[in-house]
Amino acid sequence: WHLQFCLLSFAMCADFLAAALEHHPTRIQGRVVSEDPKMVHFTDFVSPEEAAHLLALAEGRWKRSMVTRGPASALLGNKMGASVMRAPEADGDGATATNQQSSEEQSSGQSYDVLSDDCTSSMAMLDYEASPVVERILGRVATVTGYPLEHVEQALVLRYTAGQQFRLHHDGAMRPMTLFTYFNDVPEGGETSFPHLGLQVKPVAGTAVMWRNTRGDKGEDAEADRRTDHEGRPPAEGHVKYGMVCFVNRAPQRDCSHITLRPAQGGA
Fold first, then answer.
1. 6 φ/ψ sector (left φ>0, alpha ψ -120 to 50, else beta)
2. Residue 214: which of 169, 173, 170 has the closest Cα?
């Protein structure tokens, strides 16, 4: 039975991949919702077939989401050492970190990943080579953010069941841009909220929201733009939110010299 299930799962993944490769957006439309800080809302950023394929890749990889904690100077780029009410947090990607950090680790001035009640979703990190669909979507992220492909971090697929949330946080000054795309409609709850801007983005399948995390473009000296602090609101009872977050890092993440980005046929 286990072998039969594995063969069935492999066949389903192959079917999802074939459908995703065939069906993809040929034209992505964006609307600027904020000039300062920069924020753009996109329609048709991913197709239903691509979303289904990415969720199939996430199966068997789900882990409890983690957050990164550390001094403000490390995460937010505040060279003046301003105090904060609580430990600053950024979306974490440390799949092997534990919740029990040593006192030496916490006092070393370095950032570290932990489980936190502030973030109760599940995540699945997708390898760059997991699928040509993953690479294609990361290419879109590079295109709309205006950054080279090598600066785009590995994609994180996220799952929020009813009541799960990510409380107010910032993605970090090391990440000048973030793009979050929604895989399904959430009729009630699940919004991405930017309270300092008075904006809320409702989860609608295929759409995406992109925003700038930093003030200016100063490389390692960039500081976090706290106006883009945001939270993932919990879905209401009976609802689940699926999506994917893509971070653009100020530092190259890999060698992409073998990859050429080109517009999709039939559109941009």
1. alpha
2. 173
> How many beta carbons lie within 10 A of that of residue 1, not counting itself?
5
Residue 51, judged by CB atoms within 10 A of its CB (0-12, 13-18, 19+), counts as buried
**DSSP 8-state symbol, 238:** T
169-223 pLDDT, tens digit each: 999 999 999 999 999 999 999 999 999 999 999 999 999 999 999 997 667 788 9
Nearest by Cα to 41 from 173, 202, 195 = 202
Give pTM, 2 decimals.
0.84
Q: Which of 69, 103, 41, 40 is nearest to 172 (CA)?
A: 69
Query: Is 245:177 a contact under the CB 8 Å cutoff?
Result: no
Instruction: Label residue 104 exposed, middle or buried (CB < 10 Å: 0-12, 13-18, 19+).
Output: exposed
Q: Which residues pair with 157 in a beta bridge?
A: 124, 244
Inter-residue contact 213 to 176 (CB < 8 Å): yes
Helix spans in 93-235 (H): 103-106, 132-145
Q: Are 149 and 223 in contact (CB under 8 A)?
A: no
